[in-house]
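Quick illustration, no need to memorize.
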Amino acid sequence: MLVDSSGKKKAYLKAKIDEHETVSKIKKILGAFIVENAFKKSYQPRINIMKDNKEYLVTDYHIILARRRKYFSQLLNVLSVNEVRQR
């Protein structure tokens, strides 16, 4: 399935232009500079892909989030020092 990023790119650019106009109206020079600087960096689409337990590629946001949550939960919730592997 190919994702049409041109619609997302147009929405991104429109949001940045609107944000720039809003900040400019408020006359916050530093804020306008930051927004303009971010605008110059251009749009970069993000691709979220992860492998599941069977090495299949997964692109569903909720599945990826659940796997990351489980991984970091196991990584950070160590009951004792003996459970930490020595490298």
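Residues 47-87 form one domain.
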